[in-house]
Task: structure prediction
Amino acid sequence: MRMNTSDKQILIVEDNNKNMEKLCEVLKDIKDVYIHKAKNSEQAYRYALEYNIDLFIVDIILNTKVFADISGLKFIESIRSINGYKFTPIIVTTSLEDPKFHAYSNLHCFRYYEKPYDYAEFKKSVVEALEYTTPKKAKDFYYYKDDGVIYSIKTKNIVYFQTNNRITYIKCKNGKVMPTPYKSNKKILLELNSKKFLRCSNNTIVNAEYIEGIDKSNRYVMLVDGFGTLEIGPKLKKKFLEDFFKC
Result:
């Protein structure tokens, strides 16, 4: 299933494969929704940083091998510490009763479901939660993962992205070029969620803040501070110019 820019994004954090499959089955016919799936808090946190999540569905127990595990609750606490997610709806699912008061009072969770629960009622809560999602904001940082480590770059310091041979290169304000794991242009734009980043060719996304001028006839972008020029793809020229003059 491919994600569209207009889709609401749900992140399900659940370590049990059967429970994950059941939740996806229950929610699959909700229109204009894309579901991300994470089995542990580390993977979930990476998704939260990379994407603009509209609703979190989190199981409190994410590691049954650990006695009295509440890693899901700790994940929620970490999410609430991120400005963009302070008021994002969170639905908690668990077999525990004790964390209920904490989840509602301190972490401001939207709903709390103790297993087993009614899936029809659960689905209604998901639809309701998606109606109350907060407006998405442009990301202040661009995140990427390399060798198991998550790195971040301030978006205001990114001049452009350029992809060659399945590697995404990031040209930075300080002149450095950072080779990063491949991401498609569509995925990069979804993660940035910013009108300032424009696709000017099949392999290049440019930050409009660094554009000094545009040569429409010869189809290239002139960048500030000696960062050179970038080609404008013939098929993308019209949309690129429209988006540039809007931002």
Notes: The first strand starts at residue 8 and ends at 13.
